[in-house]
């Protein structure tokens, strides 16, 4: 008989709910975020004019897990755990995670009074994109193509090892590194260039790279030894 994987958990900041005796009765459905837009009524025109704020700009989502707890002996630990911000993985979608913040107040007094089931809900305010788990990509030859398994452009972290000045292009985004050697990090999510803990923004010019949904060629001229990309694949 086939043993089905357990899906009665969520993982918050690296710890599963079942480690605390919390089981999930209902997971949030897979949800597509709403585009951030403005609707304007134009006199003499039917309907409304839709203006998008920018490309790939979406609103946060509220995703809720309905749970029950086996016993109430560890409520103090649970209250300390279910707070703040971090990453959440739902067992019905284990190939990635959301960046999120817990936004509801969990009524533990009601949980204590519950009988026979001590149930409650945890609501996560999630950033709109689902981040796929993926290994780093090492590129040692200019002209290498990288496929993007996500549905939208990713914002990678790019580590360039070089022995002199270089010009690098990733998916049509071009940047130059001058006056620096060793391994330099180009951090697109933070819009920062640094080496170890030292800023190297003055050594970089050009665009912070993205990897379009169709994929990207990685090319360069100059003294590049290798490029290691943390892709940060994103989808809905």
Task: Describe this entry's structure for a reader.
The protein has helices at 75-81, 108-113, and strands spanning 10-12, 15-16, 22-26, 37-40, 49-52, 61-69, 85-90, 93-102, 118-126, 130-132, 137-139, 144-146, 157-170, 173-177, 182-187, 192-195, 198-199, 204-206, 216-230, 234-235. Strands 1, 2, 3, 6, 7, 8, 9, 10 and 20 form a 9-stranded antiparallel β-sheet that branches. Strands 11, 12, 13, 14, 15, 16, 17, 18 and 19 form a 9-stranded antiparallel β-sheet that branches. Helices cover 6% and strands 47% of the residues. It contains 2 helices and 20 strands. The chain has 236 residues and is mainly beta. Strand 13 (157-170) and strand 14 (173-177) form a beta hairpin. The mean pLDDT is 92.
Distance between the amino and carboxyl termini: 34 Å
What's the number of helices? 2
Helix content: under 10%
Task: Give the helix/strand class.
Answer: mainly beta
Say what oligomer this is: single chain
Write the layout of secondary structure elements.
Elements: E1 10-12, E2 15-16, E3 22-26, E4 37-40, E5 49-52, E6 61-69, H1 75-81, E7 85-90, E8 93-102, H2 108-113, E9 118-126, E10 130-132, E11 137-139, E12 144-146, E13 157-170, E14 173-177, E15 182-187, E16 192-195, E17 198-199, E18 204-206, E19 216-230, E20 234-235
Antiparallel strand pairs: 1-2, 1-7, 3-6, 4-5, 6-9, 7-8, 8-9, 8-10, 10-20, 11-19, 12-19, 13-14, 13-15, 13-19, 14-18, 15-16, 16-17
